[in-house]
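// run 5 | inverse folding | seed 20
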């Protein structure tokens, strides 16, 4: 896929049949609402993990953790988390085994992250990215597919091994 190219109709249709999870704190609430409307209008099944209304004292882990667990378990195929910068969402999501979350605010990284690194959670900054670009990034992310090449699988195996090691107490 060329830089900035949106997913093809065929690719969008494939993921439109998938369940996509989304979560946001107060700083990402408006963008989350905007993206939910667009995804549903474009045929995506969206599962909203909250927050259900903006509260200035909410905490992004309360919404991102259930979303990340749903992605890890397969209850949703991909996740989108939104906080002020996207960074906090990424940090907490990556604490869940098998989650590969990344802050992405451009279309190249949106497809490359999935194709090469098998990113399964997209993290956006509700205070960083505008609605139009966010929608392009989401469409690109949902339309991308892991390429499964040997070198990328080898790298992912090393990450999975590290995840397993991290569950062993350090002497």
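// decoded
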């Amino acid at each position: 896929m060329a830089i900035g190219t949106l997913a093809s109709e065929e690719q969008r249709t494939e993921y439109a049949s998938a369940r996509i999870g989304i979560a946001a704190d107060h700083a990402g609430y408006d963008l989350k609402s905007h993206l939910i409307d667009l995804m549903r209008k474009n045929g995506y099944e969206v599962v909203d993990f909250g927050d259900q209304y903006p509260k200035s004292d909410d905490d992004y882990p309360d919404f991102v953790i259930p979303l990340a667990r749903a992605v890890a378990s397969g209850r949703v195929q991909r996740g989108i988390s939104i906080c002020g910068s996207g960074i906090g969402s990424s940090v907490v999501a990556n604490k869940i085994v098998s989650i590969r979350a990344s802050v992405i605010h451009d279309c190249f990284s949106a497809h490359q992250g999935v194709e090469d690194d098998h990113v399964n959670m997209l993290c956006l900054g509700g205070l960083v990215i505008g609605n139009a670009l966010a929608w392009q990034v989401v469409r690109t992310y949902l339309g991308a597919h892991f390429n499964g090449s040997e070198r990328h699988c080898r790298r992912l195996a090393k990450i999975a091994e590290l995840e397993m090691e991290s569950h062993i107490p350090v002497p």
